[in-house]
Amino acid sequence: MEKKMKLKKPIVRLLQVLGIIGVILLVLVGFYFYQIHTLEKIGYSQKASHNILFSFKKDYIMSIGENKTLNAAFESIDYEEKNLDRYQKIKFQNQKHFIRNINRLIKIGYSDYEISMIVSHGDDQAVSDFTKRKKIRYLEEFYSISYAKLENYDRYIQYMDNSREDEETTVLHVNLDLDKEDYEDSVEVKNFSIDMFVNKHHGLSKKFKVDDLVTINKKYTVTNDKVQANNEAYQAFIKMQKDAEKEDMHILVNSCYRSYEDQEQTWATYQKLYGDNYVLRYVAKPGYSEHQTGLGFDLASTTSNIFAESKESKWLFDNSYKYGFIYRYPKGLESITGYNYESWHYRYVGKEIAKYIEDHNITFDEYYIKFLDKS
User: How many CB atoms lie within 10 A of CB 247?
Assistant: First the structure.
């Protein structure tokens, strides 16, 4: 018969201890992952949850609940426990140095409300640059305006001092670069879109291409020369023109798409005829004309040589927004649009934008700054 092997008592005790330690470790690991899961369920990342547990802040976090700024704080190497209560009161922004910048702004002396305002008005670089300056005086005056830009603060101050305009007008004008000379330091618009913005500070290169450029049927044009437009805008024009005809209105296209080279010729012709002062006021430099987008339409009437006095002009003013067109350069708003009043110039922007502009009685320039500007 084989003899049964008996373990020595010290070994048995060791195995028992190891078994107990193993059970304890399993319990601890299970407890750890349970706590992590609890924090993840209310919106914290695994990394943030880990750091919350090891800083013994779980009860604090559970009392607060989900908070994106606290999540970012516990994920960040810049986390400072002394600022914990303040982090949770600051509106989250997805910025690389978000927590570091909050710490710096706290040190400068800004309130939680002011910090939320600052970080929401610039990207990571703009906020980081802003933290390097001393505390500013006129924060809320400018940054209670949703579209104010952090990096433009000094320009706002200078423009308001020089123009004596109010804060909202100042922000609008500076964001439109109206504090700069025309065509100075302009933004290049590279991509075609129905809501693209072109003016004396937003230009197009010679290489810019209009999407879906088509030739307008000559029955809709004043001239026998080829006139082109973006197809979506053209189809909207046809619908508008046909509905106008039902009310005995006759609308034609005098001009639409003009290439960079066409605009060069137009500029040179008017400059030769009327001089520099005229072209600077009435003609866009090559690359800065809406006609290069294929979305700007110069319209004409068959009933009057003076378009502004025609019944078609009145009808368009009242109805064009229903088809996605806007009256681009209104009378009295030259300081915003940069161009003198043009009763004949309409721009296609799509029905949604056109209706908003109509309902709120604003220019496309104002709409762009408030809702579309990503620069």
Answer: 10
CA dihedral of 103, 107, 111, 117, whole degrees rounded to 10: -50
CB 237 within 8 A of CB 258: no
- Dump pLDDT digits (tens) for 251-277: 999 999 999 999 999 999 999 999 988
CB count within 10 Å of CB 334 equals: 13
Q: Strand ranges (DSSP E) for the chain? A: 187-188, 202-203, 213-215, 228-230, 251-255, 296-301, 325-327, 345-348
The answer to whether 310 and 303 are in contact (CB under 8 A) is yes
Q: What is the pLDDT confidence band of residue 1, given thresholds at 50, 70 and 90? A: very low
Pairing between strand 228-230 and 251-255? unpaired
277 contact partners, CB below 8 Å, separation of at least 6? none
Catalytic residue among 165, 168, 232, 342: 342
Report d(CA 128, CA 188) in Å as an integer: 26
Give the global pTM. Answer: 0.88
- How far is it, in rounded angstroms, from Cα 143 to Cα 17? 65
- CA–CA distances in Å: residue 307 to residues 64, 343, 349: 64, 7, 22
Catalytic residue check, 352? no
Spatial contact of 166 and 150, defined as CB atoms under 8 Å apart: no
The amino acid sitting at 228 is: Q
Residues in the chain: 375
Question: Of 64, 63, 57, 112, nearest to 79 (Cα)?
Answer: 57
Q: Are 171 and 155 in contact (CB under 8 A)?
A: no
Which residues contact residue 332 at a Cβ distance below 8 angstroms, ignoring those fewer than 6 apart?
341
Rounded to whole angstroms, what are the CA distances from 243 to 48, 247, 316, 345?
Answer: 61, 7, 11, 19
Measured CA to CA, the distance from residue 330 to residue 286 in angstroms comes to: 22
Beta strand pairing call for 296-301 and 251-255: antiparallel
Q: How many CA atoms lie within 13 A of 8 on its CB side?
A: 2
In three-state form (DSSP H/G/I as H, E/B as E, the rest C), the secondary structure along 182-234 is CCCCCEECCCCCCCCCCECCEECCCCCCCCCEEECCHHHECCCCCCEEEHHHH
Angle between the N-to-C axes of helices 98-108 and 68-75, in degrees from 0 to 180, rounded to the nearest 10: 100
The runs of H, that is alpha helices, within 82-166 are: 84-87, 98-108, 112-119, 124-130, 139-143, 153-163
